[in-house]
Amino acid sequence: MPDATSGPAWERRLLLGLLLAPALLWLFALIVLPQIDLALLSFRERVAPREYVASLAQYRTFFAEPLYWHVFVRTAVMSLAATLATLLIAFPVAWTIAKLLRGRLSALLFVVCLIPFWVSETVRTLGWMILLRESGVLPALLAHLGVTAAPVELLYHDATILVGLVYTSLLFMVVPLVSSLESLDNSLIEAAYDLGGSGWSILREIVIPHAAPGITAGCIVVFMLMLGNYLTPTLLGGKSSQWFTEQIYTQFIVRFNWEQGAAFGFLLLALSTSMVWLGLKLSGQRFGDVMRRT
Amino acid sequence: MQAVLPMLLALALLGGGAARADDSKRLRIITWSDYVPAEVIADFKKETGIQAEVTLSNNEEIISKLRATGGAGFDLAQPSQDRIVGAQQEFRIYKPFDLSQVRLDQFMPDLLATVRKNATLDGKLYGLPYVWGAEGLVVNSKRAKLADYGDLCRPEYKGKTSIRLRRPVLMAFAFASGKDPFALYGDIKAYSALMESVGRTLIACKPNFRFFFDNKDQALNGVRSGELVAAMMWDSGGWALNRENPDIRFINPKSGAIAWLDTFALPARGKNDAGAYAWINFTMRPAIAAKIAKSIGNFTASKGADELADPRLKAQFKESFPDGFRNVRWYPAIPAGLEEIEGKILDRIKAAD
């Protein structure tokens, strides 16, 4: 009977292969291959027109020129701060959607969170520019109410970038938080109250541990989005506010220095990978569990 | 399953074939904003049946996009005359002109001579002149008084001026410091030192800049709304603002406006050269060139179009350049390697606090 069993098994494997083929093709042709090409680019140096030699010069430039790693560290720190701010803002929202509201009201609030995403990021960011610029809506309102004597420039500050980043990525924090909070049994919280727990100790010992995979998942996604964001820091940021993605764009497009840009790209990849690894270690989460929540 | 693959292949082939059949009926142009007015596209289509498709860009993006494809994807590009030879040596993104296909008598001879000097490589010509103008200072004369680039850094204009953080501003401030950067193009060491010193000047000046603008609209909005009192900008932008508010003027700075000349260039793997030549000959007719000049707000390289130009534009030109184009610097072709030096200085200015 070996033929009878191997036939379907072989067919099953073929079917699985066919089903996976588009995803694998996508992964290989559009992600793996370009990455390999970029890696090769990053390890060469231009010595004369159309002449290149293998070298580590691009990575050396990064460490030798303080400018570049300053921008690198700045991007990481600001992304981290913005991720924490997003978590602090998204948590009460997610709690309200998952626990306090029922049925249509909860769905409505969810849709309200979603609506800004119906227009593109560019439009949303330009909206912020109209609101915050000196001749814009908010400074005029502040001056009118007497909070400031004259309209002040709210655009082009680091804080403006943070506001923009948090706004752009709020949804990606709310969704995993809602799904992990919804699975929390209300009776656990009631029991904790019965046993004399305070609001704070319940949050710390029951809610947060239960939601930990959702929190980690949200933080990872949001952090990645911020680190790789180009539009928001470029449009909202001021004359000194460099973002590392902007540096990569500049190297590739403005300076025609693909080698340097590729090296920067890999450094950014290394940064995000190590930050995610560190985050998982510190929160004691496993990657597989976390990814299932996103 | 067996039937699907050949069908897909056939579809792909059909698609490819259809696209090829279309190529002679469309002309893909990569250019700057306002350079190809809709009216001219319609006129050209009526006469030749070719549909011009426009992609808006700038000097750096034109080179980067063509480099990425090895010169494919567009049938006509419009880089500045000084950015052709270096890019061609490095990336081979253009093909030379077949001058027998071009009506050279339609061009102004001195501008043609300029590109012949700067856009010729190995005896072949890679650029033809299209539009020229200058970068200088746009000043709201009611609120500020500037005579030279350095005045953008005067303490009373703190947070009220702007520049575009690209290479022209380095050239401008080099001239303002009394040196001639173009004369040092061949001397990498002296050029580096000059750029370092310009970089220090601009870093010290940074509190004066409200923002570094990326595109014309951003700068125009800044001056229009009163957030800026002065900016280093293109003459056409200044004249556009002048039409809305006569207090805003474009002035030729004491150390000289920096003149640019944008060109036609043929991408190496463009698919409609015949269409490109037809377009060049068409747009350089005085009547068509006058329409283009009106859309851009600058003068074209077409001989005889000046007489047809908007009288207002002519008056504005005269006010901004009372002695004509005498005190103006023309860009020579950039040797390879210089932009790397400038790039580092620009990065430093951007990052400085």
Topology overview:
The complex is a heterodimer of chains A (294) and B (353).
Chain A: H1 2-42, E1 44-48, E2 51-54, H2 57-64, H3 66-100, H4 103-114, H5 121-132, H6 137-145, H7 158-182, H8 186-194, H9 199-227, H10 231-236, H11 244-254, H12 258-283, H13 287-293
Antiparallel strand pairs in A: 1-2
Chain B: H1 4-22, E1 26-31, H2 38-48, E2 51-56, H3 59-69, E3 76-77, H4 85-91, E4 94-95, H5 109-118, E5 120-121, E6 124-125, E7 128-140, E8 161-163, H6 167-176, H7 188-205, E9 209-212, H8 216-224, E10 230-234, H9 235-244, E11 248-251, E12 257-264, E13 266-267, H10 273-283, H11 286-296, E14 299-300, H12 305-308, H13 311-320, E15 328-330, H14 338-351
Parallel strand pairs in B: 1-2, 1-3, 8-9, 8-10, 12-15
Antiparallel strand pairs in B: 4-13, 5-6, 7-10, 7-11, 7-12, 7-14
Helix pairs in contact in B: 7-14
Can you walk through the features of this model?
Chain A is mainly alpha-helical and 294 residues long. Chain A has one domain (53-293): MetI-like (MetI-like fold). Chain A is built from 13 helices and two strands, in the order αββαααααααααααα. Chain A has helices spanning 2-42, 57-64, 66-100, 103-114, 121-132, 137-145, 158-182, 186-194, 199-227, 231-236, 244-254, 258-283, 287-293, and strands at 44-48, 51-54. A two-stranded antiparallel sheet of chain A has the order 1-2. In chain A, a hairpin with a 2-residue loop joins strand 1 (44-48) and strand 2. In chain A, helix 3 packs parallel to helix 7 and helix 9 crosses helix 13. Chain A is globular. The model of chain A has no long low-confidence stretch (mean pLDDT 89). Chain B folds into two domains: 4-131 and 261-320, Periplasmic binding protein-like II (D-Maltodextrin-Binding Protein, domain 2); 133-259 and 328-351, D-Maltodextrin-Binding Protein, domain 2. In chain B, 44% of the residues lie in helices and 18% in strands. Chain B has helices spanning 4-22, 38-48, 59-69, 85-91, 109-118, 167-176, 188-205, 216-224, 235-244, 273-283, 286-296, 305-308, 311-320, 338-351, and strands at 26-31, 51-56, 76-77, 94-95, 120-121, 124-125, 128-140, 161-163, 209-212, 230-234, 248-251, 257-264, 266-267, 299-300, 328-330. In chain B, strands 7, 8, 9, 10, 11, 12, 14 and 15 form an eight-stranded mixed β-sheet that branches. In chain B, helix 7 (188-205) runs parallel beside helix 14 (338-351). In chain B, 46% of the residues are buried. The interface between A and B is medium-sized, with 24 and 32 residues.
